[in-house]
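Anyone up for a design puzzle?
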């Protein structure tokens, strides 16, 4: 079994309220094991024998759309991929350790082509900086709150012409810790 993290768009925003116990049951109904959620914003950790990320994403997305009545873009990463995402240093530490700045990770289905990457990167300002790495966008927001920036997930999706979901790097790091805890627990159970 492989440990995965799923980042779901449109969970508990815009009037779409989903209780986490219901979300866990829906993901479990697909045959996934040890399903847990972190924060009520669509962060799910689960185990599956499946190896095809796209099939995992489409299976979860289809079940959620059928049960919830609206489209839920789903982005799945393995525990190893998630660890690499959290470890990637997209910006110099000196610009991050000041009070206020936060780094967000934008999860995308595929790495965008260079012209679309440049379109996002051209939005860099005194408040915002951007860096693509693989399928992820790293966004350094130097404002007190991300809502103080002119950039947003909706703007990202409009430029890329594709769904995306953003998470604070702190949340991503917490997801990594939960995944690591599962690996430690599995090693303890092994003979």
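Challenge accepted. My sequence:
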């Amino acid at each position: 079994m492989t440990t995965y993290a799923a980042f779901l768009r449109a969970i508990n925003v815009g009037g779409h309220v989903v209780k986490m116990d219901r979300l866990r049951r829906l993901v479990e109904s697909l045959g996934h094991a040890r399903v847990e959620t972190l924060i009520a914003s669509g962060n799910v950790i689960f185990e599956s024998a499946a190896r095809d990320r796209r099939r995992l994403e489409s299976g979860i997305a289809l079940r959620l759309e059928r049960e919830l009545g609206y489209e839920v873009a789903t982005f799945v990463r393995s525990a190893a991929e998630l660890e690499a995402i959290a470890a990637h240093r997209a910006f110099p530490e000196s610009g991050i350790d000041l009070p206020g700045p936060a780094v967000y990770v934008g999860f995308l289905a595929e790495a965008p082509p260079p012209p679309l990457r440049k379109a996002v990167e051209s939005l860099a300002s005194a408040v915002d900086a951007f860096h693509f790495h693989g399928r992820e966008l790293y966004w350094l927001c130097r404002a007190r709150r991300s809502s103080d920036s002119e950039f947003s997930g909706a703007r990202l999706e409009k430029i890329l012409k594709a769904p995306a979901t953003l998470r604070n790097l702190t949340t991503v790091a917490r997801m990594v810790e939960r995944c690591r805890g599962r690996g430690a627990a599995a090693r303890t159970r092994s003979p």
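A detail worth pointing out: Confidence is low (pLDDT under 50) at residues 186-191.
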